[in-house]
Structures are given as C-alpha cells and as structure tokens.
Amino acid sequence: MASSTEGGFTVWLTGLSGAGKTTIGHAVAAELERRGLHVEVLDGDIVRTHLSKGLGYSHEDRDTNIERIGWVASRLTRHGAAVVVAAISPYDATRKTVRALVEEQGPFVEVWVKASVEECARRDAKGLYAKAFAGEITQFTGVDDPYEEPDDAEVVADTVALTPDESVALVMAELERLGLAPVAEPAAG
Ligand code: ADP
I want to staple 15 with a disulfide (CB 3.0 to 4.6 A). Which of 11, 58, 113, 144 is the partner? Predict the structure, then answer.
C-alpha cells in the first residue's frame, strides 16, 4: 500500500489565549517529526512578529492575520508538510475560510483546545488576563472580544479535564485514524 502520509496536511489548533495551543502544538509537532514527517509550526505569537507584524486586534486585522497563516499553511500543505498552526482564530467564518483554502491542497484537522476563560485566567501564563481584566489591554479574546466556539472541530481537547500528554494522544489518534500519521512503533525493550 502506498503510504498515506506522503501528502501534506494541516492541524489547526484554535482556542483562547492560555488554553494550551502552543504546548500541545509543539508536542504534536515533535511527535510527528519523530514519526518521520516534515513538520512546520506556525505559532500565532511568532507569526505576529514576522508575517503579520503591525497588525492589531480589530476584527479586520485578526481576519487578515488568520488568512495569512491559512495561506502559508495551504502552500506548505501542497508541498507535503505536516503543518501545525497554533492561533486563537476566534471567528468561525474565518476558520471556515482557511479550512476551505487548505482543503484545496490536503486535509485540515481542526483541534479546539478548550478551556474556560476562568481557567485560562487562573493559569495566566503570560500575565495578559490580569491586564485585560484591569482594562490595561483591550480587545482581548474571551474578556472583551468574542471567541466563537467551533461546531466542526475534528478534535476537542478539553485541557481542564486532560493533561497535555492526554491532549496530544487525542490529536495523534485522530491523525492516525485519518491515515495522516504512521502508527507509532512500540518502544524498544
Ligand atoms: P496558548 O498557546 O493557547 O496561548 P500556551 O500553550 O502558550 O497556550 O499556554 C498554556 C499554559 O497552560 C502553559 O503554561 C501550560 O503549561 C499550562 N497548562 C496547564 N494545564 C494544562 C493542560 N491540561 N493542557 C495544556 N496546557 C496546560
């Protein structure tokens, strides 16, 4: 049988700031690399320092940011990469736009990294929720900007209930089920 892992695909992690997209995304990327795939990670925070430098957090700028990431993901997918995107991507219509764009080239696997605003604020790994609740920063998703919950995600990783490892396992199981990731060889010994 020809390998079903020759074609590229995109794993798109969406969710609130601090929900765990970067944590889970990097671990999924490492696991895909371990299984021999060519992987590229597009992390929203990093994209905003390069490709989307200068964009803000208005609805229009958020859409431009996500559409740029989607376009790059589609090009990489076309050339056989396993693309892992970690970006809040709060708007349903925009997620559907980038899904359609990527699906012209290969599979799009949406992962809703799900955690409540309360839990993300409790973690507040980047100190941003405290600032948003204090009004020091505005247009903050989940506080004074919307997050439209996905209704079509292939995977829902509830990071209140699951450890990071469990979320990664959930994503890998879906990629295996779809024939996108080779099944892991059992550990030696
Ligand atoms: P995001 O990329 O969604 O903004 P990050 O991955 O950067 O989120 O940050 C999530 C933070 O929450 C990390 O510091 C991570 O260690 C922590 N965390 C605590 N519990 C979990 C969990 N169950 N799953 C994922 N991350 C968790």
Answer: 113
Q: Is the Cα torsion angle 1, 188, 26, 42 positive or negative in sign? A: negative
Per-residue pLDDT tens over the stretch 20-29: 999 999 999 9
- Helix and strand numbers (H, E) in the chain are 7, 5
| 12, 21, 22, 23: residue to mutate for ligand 1 pocket, most atoms within 8 A of CB | 23
**CATH code of the domain occupying 9-177:** 3.40.50.300
Specify the residue with its C-alpha closest to ligand 1, atom 26: 20
Domain layout of the chain by residue ranges: 9-177
Query: Each residue of 35-85: pLDDT tens digit?
Result: 999 999 999 999 999 999 999 999 999 999 999 999 999 999 999 999 999
